[in-house]
Amino acid sequence: MTLQTFNPEISTEPVIEIKQPVITVKDVNVFYGDKQALKNISLDIPKNKVTSLIGPSGCGKTTFLKCINRMNDLIDICRVEGEILVGGQDIYDPAVDVVALRAHIGMVFQKPNPFPKSIFENVAYGMRIHNLTNSKSELGDRVESALRGAAIWEEVRDRLDQPGTSLSGGQQQRLCIARAIAVEPKIILMDEPASALDPIATAKIEELMDELRKNYAIVIVTHSMQQAARVSQFTAFFHMGELVEHGKTDKIFTSPGDERTQNYITGRIG
Amino acid sequence: MESTHIVQSFDRDLEKIKGLLLEMGGLVETQLADAITALVNRDSKLGKQVKKSDKPINLLEQEINEKAVRLLALRQPVAADLRIIVSIMKAAANLERIGDYAKNIAKRTSVVVKCPPVGSAANTLKRMNTMVINMINDVLDAFIADDIETADAVRLRDEEVDLVHNTLFRELLTYMMEDQRNISPSMHLLFIAKNIERCGDHAAQIAEQVHYMVAGSLPEDKRPKSDKTSTMTLEVDQN
Amino acid sequence: MTETFTRKTPELARRHAGEKRFQWLGKAAITIAIGFLLVMVGTISWMGVGAFKQTQIALDVYLDPQEIDTAAPNKADYGAMVKKAQRSKFSDVKKHNDKRKLYKLLSSQAAFTLQHQVADNPELIGQTAKIWFIASDDVDMFIKGNTNVDDSGNAGKLDKKQLQWIAALKSTGDIRTRFNSSFFLSGDSREPELAGILSAFTGTVLTLAVCFALSFPVGILAAIYLEEFTPKNRWSDLIEVNINNLAAVPSIVFGLLGLSVFLNTFGLPRSSPLVGGMVLGLMTLPTIIIASRAALRAVPPSIRQAALGIGATQIQTVFHHVAPLAMPGMLTGAIIGMARALGETAPLLMIGMVAFIVDVPGSVLQPATALPVQIFLWADSPERAFLEKTSAAIIVLIVFLIFMNLIAIILRHKYRQRF
Q: Is domain B9-226 classified as CATH 1.20.58.220?
């Protein structure tokens, strides 16, 4: 009788097969000055799924997220090598207009950051600058549908003219999501969207994400293992600038292929 | 796991539950051994004792379940940690079933000792039982040591128990055909044999659980089964 | 158990004593500061409040229709009429010397006062009218009690005889003090009783207007560009250091710069609020840039990320979101800079705004002076009465400063937005 052998050192292939990816990342290296923040990252982001990026602080997951909508451009010393294909187009191609790119890839930040303007204006602003609407009534309709899409319409319909900053933290974050989806992106990036929220507000955001993924591809950075497990279908584990493991979330959280993933998600000292 | 948990109290809780499982395993092994000893020595007093020893085993299983559920709720373990706790709960359930079978054996012993002995069946049962007890012992060792190879080996040893069971089944059928007075004790002995065979299955299931716990997946090959008693017939009008 | 929290250990007592000591010192410091401030403001108010009052003397003037040509009333010799009225009031004065002393009771303005009265009320011609004339500064000082009768019977420049006349006027109720509107409505004068601050005040307003128009937009745009658009490298560091240094350059250096560049090279009109404003603008610029950059830096980066994240361009991000949020801070910085410019004298001296200006400037190109310069000039004058004027002008300057700061506070509140 031959025994089935198991060797945890031989991990499953970090890159898994994803059909029709919305984002294809090929051999991306990111440098901050001399320091390399990301090493040879290759990863596909699937359509209509939530992909969560996990890893210890400083592992490069937020850097990776910011590469996708080129928010890293704002950092002078940041340099990106490799290819990130969105809809088949390399977004680091010199011909790519970063403004158009960011309209295509929405972003929601860690701290709710509504503009200190009215709730209506917060959502309408993106549509105004991108000239998405022709008439005032159309603008109103689309603001409503964006707010409905972010599951906050019922709470704010009577006070659209009040400042967005008057809302609670969870409402502010949903307002920010409404603002992001108002410009009709294909992809939504979320950088720890619920880290500043209480469990109820977090649950609402997570429920919303599940709803949103029907229309968008979502990439979320999170420090909460439970959150990654709850909301995402795919999980990528980053460690020291490397992509250690990428796979289905249920696989990662029940039987991760790599010891480093295992140690991280169980909270062990590797 | 060689690596220690950052939250050390988690490791301590886990060790405590593992200890309870080992304690439970020890009780089950003794109970099973005593049940067969009572049968072989025709000792109805020991049999009664075995019937009662089921209670602490059930209590232990309850305690393990409570502690495991508490750990699940409070620590929300994932990956290997999650698999350990799930495996412990399943192993405890399996051990509890083995305990139930031992109790059943003891019950039947009280009937069997009133009848004349049937051939060497009791000794065969003892041999079979020792095999199962060794399996339980080994699989629990493997459980503690995360020893997937031993666990897989234990899982395959269940086949040998099945083979002995087949032989005993045929033997007892023969006794029953020879003499109608043998039917009553033989029937009980058959059930006892079946019980021990089931205990072997449970030990094998624990072995599979150890495999899952360590590797994150159940063994891919099908467990070889040689229990033919469900389909076995004997030609009565042979001579 | 309870004793753990109630027992006073020496160590704990020492720590509490230290805290009390510090609080006491703090209170003492504030008391001293407020004390100094009160002394300064108190003295200035005490000394200056008299300047808001004016001493007037009433005379019955016969407006002889033969002297005054109704077609051209301005050509009449009103001075003679005033003198005649004075002589008729004190008919016992015969000596030429005494007559001169009598005339000196009134300000040299008296003839003009009469002329204006006649021009405004032509029906007075041919009648004897009781008209209030501004008293001379010596009489003014005596009436307000700033000069006292000494051992020889004189009070300041007034001698015994003049004091007798004043006493006589007092007894008939022909001498009074009234609110000094001419202090606010007239320009500078050699005669203290006639000197006003309107020209200096207007000069200051015009200068500050030029200063604001120049330094606010330039300062804010420079700050926005430096803060939001320039890459951080050695050049931007160098610029930053230089701006910070410029803010500390003595103001007289800016005055010299204005003199050599604006006046000598560009040939702009000397003493004009335009040049003064430009010099003060240059001086204020670093302050505004530094304050504006601090205000921009205080805008949380999350706002920029939010705007950029939905595809706003850098310019849209800055002008739609960042600058409006920084506006209260920028305005405060600008007004603080303006307040500093308001009090500047040295650079204005260099570009000739120290001139004796009687007329109120009508445009930024006409010669003007500024309030602090006016204060400087008056403080330098020998006449006793100018002391009062100096203090009064300082009060006006301080009120103006408070007013500007009030505007700053109101603007801050109006534009303040939560983020």
A: yes
- ipTM score assigned to the predicted complex: 0.85
Establish if A7 touches chain B: CB-CB under 8 angstroms.
no
In this complex, the residue of B79, B220, B221 whose CB is nearest that of residue A254 is B79
> Could you report the per-residue pLDDT of B134-179, keeping only the tens digit for each?
999 999 999 999 999 999 999 999 999 999 999 999 999 999 998 8
Rounded average pLDDT over C351-363: 84
Residues of A in contact with C232 (CB under 8 A): 76
Residue C249's Cβ-side half-sphere holds a number of Cα atoms within 13 Å equal to: 23
Sequence-distant contacts of C115-124: CB under 8 A, at least 24 apart: C115/C73, C115/C74, C115/C76, C115/C78, C118/C63, C118/C68, C118/C73, C118/C76, C118/C78, C119/C73, C119/C74, C122/C70, C122/C73, C124/C63
C-alpha to C-alpha distances, C264 to A254, B113, C270, C274, nearest whole angstrom: 84, 133, 9, 15
pLDDT single digits (tens) C13-31: 899 999 999 999 999 999 9
Residues near C207 by beta carbon (within 8 Å), at least 6 away in sequence: C273, C276, C277, C280, C341, C348, C353, C368, C370
Question: Cα–Cα–Cα angle for A121, A125, A128, nearest 5°?
Answer: 125
Tell me the pLDDT band of A1, cut-offs 50, 70 and 90.
very low
Cβ contact, residue pair A270, B3, below 8 Å:
yes
Q: Which of residues 115-154 of A touch C (CB under 8 A)?
A: 115-116, 125-126, 129-130
Q: Does A113 touch chain C (CB under 8 A)?
A: yes
CATH code of the domain made up of C198-415: 1.10.3720.10
Structural tokens at position A18: 């994803």
Which chains would you list as touching A if contact means 3+ CB atom pairs under 8 Å? Answer: B, C
- Cβ-in-10-Å burial (0-12, 13-18, 19+) of A203 comes to middle
The 10 Å Cβ neighbour count of residue B226 is 14
The predicted model scores a pTM of: 0.76
CA A204, CA A210: separation in Å to the nearest integer?
A: 10
- Listed in sequence order, the residues at least 6 apart from B106 whose beta carbon sits closer than 8 Å to its beta carbon are B34, B35, B38, B47, B48, B50, B51
Residues belonging to chain B with any Cβ–Cβ distance to chain A shorter than 8 Å: 1, 3-7, 10, 76-83, 148-149, 152-153, 156, 211, 214-217, 219-221
- Strand A21-32 versus strand A78-86 pairing type: antiparallel
Residues of A in contact with B3 (CB under 8 A): 263, 268-270
Spatial distance between the Cα atoms of C248 and C246, rounded to a whole number of angstroms: 5
Task: Give the pLDDT of residue A9.
Answer: 44
In chain C, CATH 1.10.3720.10 covers 198-415
Q: Is the Cβ of C306 closer than 8 Å to some Cβ of chain A? A: yes
Q: Are strands A78-86 and A89-90 parallel, antiparallel or unpaired?
A: antiparallel
The DSSP code sequence of A74-119 is: GSTTEEEEEEEEETTEETTSTT--HHHHHHHEEEE-SS----SSBH
Q: What is the CA radius of gyration of chain C?
A: 30
Counting Cβ atoms within 10 Å, is residue A26 exposed (0-12), middle (13-18) or buried (19+)?
A: middle
Question: Using an 8 Å Cβ cutoff, are A16 and A247 in contact?
Answer: yes
**Amino acid B197: pLDDT:** 95
Q: Which domains, and CATH codes, for chain A?
A: 21-112+184-266 (3.40.50.300)
Tokens 């029906």 found at: C123
Task: Classify C176 as helix, strand or coil.
Answer: strand
**Average pLDDT value over all residues in chain C:** 87
Give the pLDDT of residue C180.
Answer: 86
Using CA of residue A39, residue A43, residue A45, residue A51, what is the dihedral sign?
Answer: negative
Domain residue limits, chain B: 9-226
For tokens 């886990």, the residue is B14
Show residues of chain A in contact with C230, CB under 8 Å: none
What is the distance between the alpha carbons of residues B24 and B57, in angstroms, rounded to a whole number?
6
